[in-house]
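REQUEST ID: PR-0412
SUBMITTED BY: lab tech R.K.
PRIORITY: routine
TASK: structure prediction, single protein chain
INPUT:
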Amino acid sequence: MNGTPFLAEGYEISFDLDRVDRERVHRWLSTDAYWALGRTREKHDRAIDGSLNFGVYESVSGEQVAYARIITDRATFAWLCDVYVDPSVRGKGIGSALVGAVREHLRPYGLRRILLATHDAHGVYAKLGFAPLENPDQWMALSF
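STATUS: complete
OUTPUT:
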């Protein structure tokens, strides 16, 4: 697995749920993320409460600039989702550093796999060790 990318100076990563700016994250996802457009605040709050949450914050102001969420049993499996970087700080490696930190945070659990779905960021995740499913024909989904 590739090393953890360096986080740009002036930013910090936190796994503290109390630091998550729920309103900001909801706005980002429900208005600008193709996978969560129109998601209600209530639904997103439930998702936050049932997940491990990770944020990137400006060190001086404490303002949240990125977010990621993990759904996991903390033993065998995790789903990485809702990865979002504010447009004003994109291109600084913040998303890669965030996902790398999430991966390292999960390493001690001894998970068998971490999955994610992406429409347009395959290259970003590949740099962090993610790869297409080896046997996609074995996977199925139930959609509502």
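NOTES: DSSP finds four helices and five strands in the chain.
REVIEWED BY: pending
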